[in-house]
């Protein structure tokens, strides 16, 4: 069903990262793929975390504007697939992530 009000649909995703460098790396990796539909606009940025528990955390913020629910759903699903791939690569290859995992496993032992 199409958007009855013909007003654009707006959604925002906020994905936290443990370090500013990882958030910036994710941003650079994800912004190279433009939206395929002219009916969807996407803006990616890295913003400071509002969490007071971790001053170093950064958030990848993704803002969507779409003309229909369907277009918004397809765009967000596609973005999430790309994000999943970026996170898997970071987990496997990034030195900081591997060091943090090792430190966390030592603390829990």
Automatic annotation (TrEMBL):
Q: Name one GO biological process term.
A: tRNA threonylcarbamoyladenosine metabolic process
Tell me where it mainly resides: cytoplasm
InterPro entries, alphabetically? CTAG/Pcc1
What's one GO-annotated cellular component? Answer: cytoplasm
> Carries keyword Thylakoid?
no
Location in or out of the cell: Cytoplasm; Nucleus
Q: Where do transmembrane segments lie in this chain? A: none
Q: Which UniProt keywords apply?
A: Cytoplasm, Nucleus, tRNA processing
Matching entries from Gene3D superfamilies are given as: Alpha-D-phosphohexomutase, C-terminal domain
Where is the secretion signal located? none
Pfam family, any one: Pcc1
Spell out the family assignment given in the record's similarity comment. Belongs to the CTAG/PCC1 family.
Its name, as the record gives it, is Transcription factor Pcc1
Q: Which organism is it from?
A: Trichoderma lentiforme
